[in-house]
Predict the structure of Acyl-CoA dehydrogenase.
Amino acid sequence: MQMSQAQNRYKADLRELQFLVFEQFGLRDLLSKEPFAAWGEDEVRMVLDETYKFATEVLGPLNGVGDREKCKLIDGKVKTPTGFPEAWKKLYEAGWRQLSGSEEFGGQGAPRTLQVLVEEMFSGANVAFMMYPGLSLGAAELIDHCGTDEQRKLFASRMYGGKWGGTMCLTEPHAGSDVGAARTTAKALPDGTYKIQGTKIFISGGDHDCADNIVHLVLARIDGAEAGTKGLSLFIVPKYRVDASGNLGQPNDVKVASIEHKMGINGSATCVMQFGEEDSCVGVLVGGVPHQGMKQMFQMMNYARIGVGIQGLAIAGAAYLSALEYAKDRKQGSSITAWKDPTAPRVAIIDHPDVRRMLLGMKAKVEGIRALIVKLSMHQDRATALGGKNDEQAAYHQGQVELLTPIVKAYASDQAFRVCEDAIQVYGGAGYCQDYPVEQYLRDSKIFSIYEGTNHIQALDLVGRKLGQAGGKHTQEFFADIGKFVSAKQEDAVLGASVKNLAKAQEAVGSAAFQFLGWFKGGEMAKVPLNANRFLEMMSELAVGWLLLEGAAIASDAQSKLTKDQKDWFFYEGKKQAAIFYAQNVLPEVVAKAKMLGNGDKSALEIPDEAFATV
């Protein structure tokens, strides 16, 4: 089946989403109670159904269109691909962007867990398009959280509703990920505003034709401020100046210098932005507070990092289900049981053992990463629900959010690319062609491991900050939660052997964490970044293995009450087999990686620069 000009190729398994929220993670416990009193199970199910409908009918058909048409810079303004402005309007008219937003500004106060699953389906259908409203929501939430009352009413209210868009502007040409080296300046003006001047690069949604105005959140250094990140302040810099009533005025000297030509997400305008080229760009301090730029920006960056994890999950899930559909339909070769018979009938390639291995590996990764992201979002919702009622438990849940954020961002984004790679392999040569969607999924997914803090930055955040946060309490609680599950299920008749592999993996990750502590104390600092990525992968695989097995245990109990002629019997069997596959094929690698980490190999440090190549 070849791709027409505007054709939806996206699919989602709603039964899987319902299993996670209702059977594994207990969303019902929070529904119909403050702060989610307006939400019940029926409302959640309805939103999931309607989200899927919107994703397949509105966003999905534009995914290939955006990839082919790309964005264009015409007379200094970005023109998005055909259908994007109309889709933006429909998205906001339907209220999708205000689902979990502040009720003060028209939000519906839904659990963050539900918002996460909505984001997954929308991003899976069209990740490039969702960059625009995704960043706008993050910027609005930052202003809502950190801004003055006047800024919240003027900017955040219009951004939540889609009248105005938003961006985050950190990266500069000379600095890359070294945000502290920023040269963008801010000069105080007599009226309390600031004159902004500088260049920012890789600005997603830096300009577009979907909203009336775009509110840029710009990191800049006020004249005289100290060097490094501590001297940075955050400014609200709109594309068009606005008065106190929100009326648009003259252009604010914010210009698009160029659009990047990228490997993927071509429907998203990645811009080089020039602020103050004519010395007339004006911004206001977020919250009216100077030198708090990085602290404030982390509000948005943490949301964005979780969002990138959701993007990775979304594309991986879309690629897996596309490959599964193709494998069931494509007939090639005979069954392995008749390999010597040249007259044997051709079979669907899903019958071939290696294809089945790839498909089950993809299923396990996708469902495990989804469980990890829903686990994080449930911690967020429980922290919100318990705040002011049980501060100790609220702190526990918030601590798990902090610990899991770099894991979600890095592991989901790394594995998205690998799942897409396997999806193409299932298709064979057809997958390498634009007639099918998986080659676009692979190109779109590569950026996820790079933006919003490269995955190496996430690994350094995990080992350098998060493991020891609160005196190591969050990490200890994470291990304790896994330990409770191991104790309860290690003798299970079906899952016992797999749970014992989980226990071995947990022990390996724990010993590796102590290895980092030894390096820190022993002054062997170079070994920390050398091994941080491996450790993050180990801890991610431990978390995913745990949650898959937890889901499998629930599925096993539910399956025992069913007969084999019921559809759910097969759904639960899939949960069990995916968990067993991951436990038997991935978790043993965690133990092997711990041994490699413990060996302390320094060859990458000891090789001279000149020895890499003679060119």
